[in-house]
Amino acid sequence: MAMMPPGLRLIIQCSLGLSRQMYYPINAIVVNVTVCPTCGYDAFTDGARVIPCATCGGTGEIPSYVIYQLRARWTFVQLTALDPYKGIAPGVESGDLIVWVAPQDKETMLQVYRTKNSYLDIEGNTFMVGGYNPDGVGNPDEYSFIGKKYKPVHDYRI
Length: 158
Known about the structure:
alpha+beta, elongated
């Protein structure tokens, strides 16, 4: 393995610092659900046990939202970027979203990735986080997350 010249990592980190100035606001929505106390939740039908429930609206779940406002940069995957030799992760399709966040936002994005029904809201479009990778030279300087177009079960905007 070839050694990196000592100044190259510093140049890369400075360039990355400049690119972080181009980060844009995104909302990371973590959805926590509790079972409806009035009608209950039926896992088999993935809905309420009593459909006309005034408490939950027939979903069997009552959502609560934690909205994190993060700064990130993102791009949509184009068909030409799907060349396997260009470093695109397996499972990424044309139209998917790749979001890059700084290390301090990694845990929040992992929480969105691991929590059922959680999603990202970017310029009014919603995406489910489908995977992540550390990016950088040596130590991870950024983390990339793959977003798939998603219609939220529990939309915080309603």
